[in-house]
Write a structure and sequence with these properties.
Number of strands: 6
CATH topology of the domain at 5-204: Serine Threonine Protein Phosphatase 5, Tetratricopeptide repeat
Strand order of the largest sheet: 1-3
Number of helices: 18
Order of helices and strands: HHEHHHHHHEHEHHEEHEHHHHHH
Shape: globular
Length: about 500
């Protein structure tokens, strides 16, 4: 059985810093006015730090904004690779709002996404403030602070990509009124992200190897994870030199590489591999899967009956994606499960319209061996990969190409060809800067299909109107979602809605 360190944490030892909202409930709650060492039982700051990881898999928060349907909607439904999925009638409003770009500022999906992002930010702020108030400067405490700052940066990066200008809350909340803040500019949010990630890079360890040379904490943050997120945050602002420098540090560290088979990234045997930088940890032993299984795979599983009742069927591939791959691209059968065809394990998937979609997300398909081992039919054990080494290679290639020069072009070609070689495709050869730019865009699409990167890539490349225009992305307002109306109402005039809404 694989040891998953976040599963050892009790929620009882966390300071509950945010109350999730439906409708007009407050999204931040009143907290104790101080902390003492006696308050930090069951592991002290380590316990608070572990609680940050648990926010990704908390089954007590229905429809959470990190790995469930609101996340699919914001990160995936809005691109040309994915759609709402499920049956036509199930959640039909979601399809209109997200697939069709008819954004609804009052829809509860955005409130859940927003609330749970600020929930994690508030937990991170509590840890940071506690360490500061108690003057905890020892190495272990600073590592925990670095973890908190990474999670705060990670969460604000999502918020700024989804909403644009958002309130900057970088302090502990003691009164609900403390959270009534106006929007900060995008530049101010990125400045906080930069500050937090610089601290995380300086204070996180390079790995968590124990004396036996094994990873003592699978999935726990390292400085290279912080570097990768910082490289991406810089790439979004076209700081190509800064992004490339960070990617090259990761590449030259020798700690990461592509695994030989692309599909193994999405199998239990491939979890926490040498390609993995950041992935949400789901327990996979029989008792844990049955009781506390992770919903990531369940909500995207095949929507059928009997033995094919494998989930809710949300977030399914489009015809556009299915028909876009080069011939013999190994990523296609690893990404798309086809109705009416073999599932890769010797069983034939029911045909459409017996089940409501032509395609399903193969990256969360339940392995028969795990179904047998756990006694659970639906996939409650799959980890959610948030960042892989392939992303670092393609970010490095993109940045190097935009900077230009013979050495950078040679390196970019090497990195792109490494991705293509694993996919079973021929090398790209000598190309111009424009051709390399197109190659990077193409490889990013197929390497991370159904993983929530495509929409944001299209927006930052200024390609969204061209690629998504026929789907309803008809003006630049669509790049940002409107702020939740519940948050606007709660702030009482302090928080102003995004333009166009």
């Amino acid at each position: 059985m694989k040891y998953k360190f976040i599963k050892t944490v009790s929620w009882a030892m966390l300071f509950m810093v945010v109350a999730g909202t439906f409708g007009c409930k407050k999204f931040l709650d009143r907290k104790p006015l101080n902390a003492s060492l006696e308050d930090l039982n069951q592991g002290g700051l380590e316990g608070l730090a572990f609680g940050l990881y648990s926010a990704f898999t908390d089954r007590n928060s229905a429809y959470h904004g990190f790995s469930s349907i609101p996340w699919f909607a914001m990160h995936s439904f809005r691109d040309d690779d994915a759609m709402k999925g499920s049956s036509a009638a199930d959640g039909a409003d979601w399809g209109v709002i997200y697939d069709g770009f008819q954004y609804d500022k009052a829809h509860w999906s955005s409130s859940i996404y927003w609330d749970q992002k600020y929930n994690l930010i508030a937990k991170a702020n509590t840890l940071i403030q506690t360490a500061d108030s108690l003057d905890l400067n020892d190495l272990a405490s600073q590592t925990n602070v670095a973890e908190a700052k990474f999670f705060r940066a990670f969460t604000y990066f999502d918020l700024v990509r989804v909403y644009g200008e958002v309130p900057k809350i970088d302090f502990r909340i003691y009164s609900a009124n403390d959270s009534k803040k106006p929007k900060a500019t995008v530049a101010q949010i990125y400045a906080l992200i930069d500050e937090d990630l610089n601290f995380a890079i300086a204070n996180l360890p390079p790995n968590w190897l124990n004396t036996a040379g094994n990873n003592a904490y699978p999935g726990r943050l390292t400085r290279y994870v912080a570097m990768a997120l910082h490289a991406k945050a810089k790439l979004y602002r076209q700081d190509y030199a800064g992004s490339l420098a960070l990617c090259q540090q990761i590449i030259s560290s020798g700690q990461y590489d592509l695994v030989p088979a692309y599909a193994s990234n999405f199998l239990v045997a491939g979890e926490n591999s040498k390609e993995s930088l950041l992935e949400v940890q789901a327990a996979n032993d029989k008792s844990s899967v049955a009781v506390t299984g992770y919903e990531w795979g369940v909500e995207q599983g095949v929507r059928g009956a009997g033995a094919w009742d494998l989930g809710w069927g949300w977030n399914t591939p489009t015809d556009n994606l299915a028909n876009a791959y080069e011939a013999n691209d190994r990523r296609r059968p690893a990404t798309i499960l086809f109705s009416g065809q073999d599932d890769g394990y010797g069983k034939t998937v029911p045909d459409y319209p017996t089940i409501p979609r032509l395609y399903w997300n193969k990256k969360v398909y339940p392995e028969p061996s795990m179904q047998e081992a756990t006694g659970v039919r639906v996939n409650r054990w799959i980890n959610h990969s948030l960042m892989r080494y392939s992303d670092v290679l393609l970010m490095a290639a993109e940045a190097a190409n935009e900077i230009g020069g013979a050495t950078n072009m040679t390196n970019a070609t090497t990195w792109v060809n490494k991705i293509r070689s694993r996919a079973g495709l021929v090398d790209i050869g000598s190309v111009t800067q424009a051709q390399m730019r197109a190659a990077v865009k193409k490889e990013r699409r197929f390497e991370f299909a159904m993983e929530g990167e495509r929409f944001f890539d299209l927006v930052r490349w200024n390609d969204a109107a061209t690629v998504l225009g026929s789907l309803g992305y008809n003006n630049d307002c669509k790049k940002y979602y409107p702020l939740p109306q519940a948050a606007i109402d709660f702030a009482g005039g302090v928080l102003v809605q995004n333009p166009c809404y």
